[in-house]
Design brief:
The complex is a heterodimer of chains A (751) and B (520). Chain A contains 20 helices and 27 strands. In chain A, strands 14, 18, 19, 20, 21, 23, 24, 25, 26 and 27 form a ten-stranded mixed β-sheet that branches. In chain A, strands 10, 11, 12, 13, 15, 16, 17 and 22 form an eight-stranded mixed β-sheet that branches. Classes of the chains: A alpha/beta (751), B alpha/beta (520).
Chain lengths: 751, 520
Amino acid sequence: MKNKFFTRNICLRHNLQVHQEWGIKMGEIDYSRPEYYLNRELSWLAFNSRILGEARDKSIPLFERLKFLSITASNLDEFFMVRVASLKDLVNAGITKPDISGLTPLQQLDRVNAATHEFVGMQYSAYNKSLLPLLSQNGLMVVEYHEELTDKDCAFVDRYFQDYVYPVLTPMAVDSSRPFPLIRNKSLNLGALVSRKTKGSARKLLFHKKAAQGRELEFATVQVPSGIPRIVELPSAEDGTKRVMLLEQVIERNMDKLFLNYDIECVFPFRIMRNADFSLAEEDTEDLLKEMEKQLKKRQWGQAIRLEVEDGIDKRLLDIIKKELMIDERDIYNIPGPLDLTFLMKMYALPGFDALKTEQYVPQQVPELPSGVDIFEQIKKHDILLHHPYQTFTPVVDFIKQASRDPNVLAIKQTLYRVSGNSPIIAALAQAAENGKQVSVLVELKARFDEENNIVWAKMLEKAGCHVIYGLVGLKTHCKITLVVRREEEGIRRYVHLGTGNYNDATAKLYTDLGLLTCDEAIGEDATAVFNMLSGYSEPLGWNHLALAPLWLKEKFLYLINREKENAENKRPARIVAKMNSLCDPDIIKAFYEAAAAGVRIELIIRGICCLKTGVEGTNGNIEVRSIVGNFLEHARIFYFENGGSSELYMGSADMMPRNLERRVEILFPILNPELKEKVWHVLEVQLRDNLKAQFLRADGTYAKTDKELVTKENACCAQEEFCREYRAEATMLEKEQRQARVFKPEYKQE
Amino acid sequence: MAYRTFAAIDIGSYELAIKIFEISSKNGIKVIDHIMHRIELGTDSYYTGKISSERIDELCRRLSEFTNVMESYKVDDYKAYGTSAIRETKNSVILLDQLRTRTGIKIEVLSNSEQRFLDYKSVASKGQAFQDIIGKSTAFIDIGGGSIQLSLFDRESLVTTQNMRPGVLRMREELTSISHRSYQLEDLVEEMLCDRFESFMKMFVGDKKIQNVILIDDYVSRVLQKSAFKSDKKGYIEAKDFIALVDSLKARKSREIAEALKISEENIQLLHLSALMLKYMLNELDAQLLWVPGVSICDGMAYEYAEKNKLFSDTDKFVVHDFEQDILACARDINRRYSGIERRTNEREELSLAIFDHMKKQCGLSKRDRLLLQLAAILSECGRYISLSNVGMSAYNIIMATEIIGLSHLEREIVANIVKYITERFEYNEILGRVTTLDREAYLKIAKLTAILRLAEGIDISHKGKCDKIKLANKGENMVITVETNADMTLELGFFSRCGAFFEEVFNIKPVLKQKNSDL
């Protein structure tokens, strides 16, 4: 490692020289000026565009591209419900305070709108022009409109409707006695204009506008049920091509069966997005759990902030919806294809197309923790690093499971932010409480979009006898920490798991995260203090190794960055490598600029939002930002500081965002064991070598991949694939060793 | 490895705390967990004399949680002490009963001197670091909510210890009743302290140069423990650096101070007051080094528990401080202050201890009682400072008005009564009839120790130091005291039967004095 740092230091000196040649005096530039920052929302949209880039990448297997397109759609939904909603709130409240990039909420909203309209255009262009034809070529035909069905198909579809769909539908017509119904957030609906049948009106007049002229039109709607698969499989074609149709088309075709006394003038799908961002007056809330349940119900009634309609919708129908939902023209999205592309994730799961998918990676065994091993004994030997999803998440679950059964375990304490459905961790915690252990769990009820799940878990854990804390007033507890207190021969020993990702066995197969299992006494002491603070007790006199947000973490980051700056100024080795999901804290960004201006080489691996700009004056190209979007979701937060040659490595749960540093409980922990430090450094080093998936932030705020001409067979690197290869190789080696160890030893007669 | 887990609960004036310790001969005292909860009981009790029901509810809730914490660590034993806030509550007996019923935790109330003694023990639990610092002349400042305890050390031994009001919480409450501007605060603090502190300086410090200051408090210590000062060793700060730090906070708002010192804003007021009090005392003492050991009364409780249960083995690498010597040093200091003649008290101490040691098997007295006897012997002369004709009563009043570190109020009353009854008529049942903390057991203790001390007095009634050596032996129903001396013992032999009558009454053994010529 040292040699690399040394060469970097030479670059650093060179940068300092350039600095002086340019005549820029340090400290002259005010890095808090808005032109040095990118808008957070636009940066997020750029991130979603990078995912869309994967969906458009012809080198990626077709079904993986479907998955990426689906992700862009669900991401955009969430973005609207939270970010756009809060921008609208600001605009409605008349707030004009600009953000760090100098844009007022209204200006941001305008730009977000323009960018989103363009983005949606690109999504559907990819879907219609690239993916649909390719699907068809590869044996999967999507019948887009019911009008394209053959008679045989029609009979099948109608039967399907009658048997499965019709019983769960609730058609609703609007007239003077029936008000406009609640259109649920994110639900897909069919809106129709209908007119009461008069004698002699013939069914054949359906869909003919002229026939309805002169008659009073009413609005009718039916929600496409979310409980029935959106993708309806049709009988296969003769050549074996699989054929599918979307559920809304099945219903649209049978709309007349829902409104028997009406003539259907026109039917079009529509979908709305509501403001799902709510705030709790926590200080005044006696029972957070009950209040949260109440607020969640209200989410369905939030203000409509986006309306998606099928391109070509009848203007009269659109006017009614628009008026009833009180939605602006610019918030209407005319969609040239099926609404809500998240159904593509279900399409990905259709059987029979494995050849069009990337081979599924199976998380490998952790060498130190083979199944059945005593985890506590292993941790006692040395700290253990876990790298998910390349390595299995099972040891983390087993850690809790073993603790729940171990007679020497006195207490288990854990924070939970997002857990999987049917979580084995929850089951183990409940079991532990039933076994008489003291189990304290902080279940963060305010984890956005997981609130309902978490309420269920909290209640279940409480029922099992756990001491459940619902979170802290005014803060979200986002840190990932587990503490097991064990009474041993030598005294009480504390075992701690600290992670960068959630205690979620399902997402641990998709998100890249790192975890540390340790029984280091100082970290154990800190972990105890963390849980005391989370239980509402005072802060400890001091911390040994952990840095906690919102009280100390930001300051720690600023200190570490500033230390590198001072090292650079004193011509000592200085370098920062930081990997995170988002960077938008203005103080941290300013500190990065200042450090870069002083000559610190800063390499940032930021998956999502990055409000920092590259190529800013005075920073001399010392800052490089790359974003890796791959098959797995990059999620780990790792921070490397060269510290004048005595490097320090930290991992944590926090991104460098104001929300993480100021409004959440987060933990930053150091990697102290030199071997593990080397391993974590390797994670960064491989990502810094990535030239296939990494995209680099350019001075204009756009991202670009490495020039293909610069990628050779020798230097080509896809970090995620490399890790898969490495961990597979390690597991194979381990298996071999185990096999060798299992050779029978024959005994021979002694002479 | 054998170890014990012990929980120490401190119900303080503004904070409730529990510390879980693991104590073993191998590793000494190790803190496993430390939980603190801010609750200002003192604000209620100092001014209304009672603790509000809301605060009692909160206290009960937190104490119940402490029960769970203790359970989770499966602690072998616990101690829960209430200090000045509980002590100064009018209905403390009812309150303690309520707390016990609602939380299952038995709380004992410490007298100020017991409390300060434990604080002192907590610092002593730092072992060699403590011994090193008290090697030089050192002032030990213990800033509590209700009062400040000031102790002086010289060459490893305790010289004096004095209690002085107000403490930080009491001062805050008093200051809130005065309308003042923020820039006046420092002057006000000084003015409120200087009256008593000047007397302390004059009486106990004088020309002595105080080099070090040890600080125990709940606010400044925390900040100084966290902060990285120039000193290499954590917790050691040059006095001038500390004063500069306090001065730098002068013009800043509480929020800024909270940010600068990394503490919560709610603590700023008390921290600031505590810092100003300390600054004033450091300036007055002209000390150079401030040591903040970062311990609390809970550490003292663990130390005491380990001591009592002999959890420190002989091979311990830990320095065990002799606290009995500190208590005795304090008593000797009081005796000197009241111009007691040391030669006499030494002789009385020696003789009475010889009788005690001879009698201990028969009379059912403990090692602690021996200490009380020793203290009574040391303090037996102090009454003469007030009145030569009314020595006993005067001594009683002096002792009752003077704190002796390490003694509970009950023990102090026992000592005062023993000293009183050396010369005064023993009052038998009337003692229990008075408004007193004494119980039946204490009454018997007073009687027995008074009898021993009166007997010792009888052996050297002229205070001429006539005895070279004494021997005690039981012969039938008599206890024969043989005094080896060539001096004329006529006076002693003549009055001995009068001095021994009470001894005989209490122990049912007749003391007989015999002289043996030392030359023989």
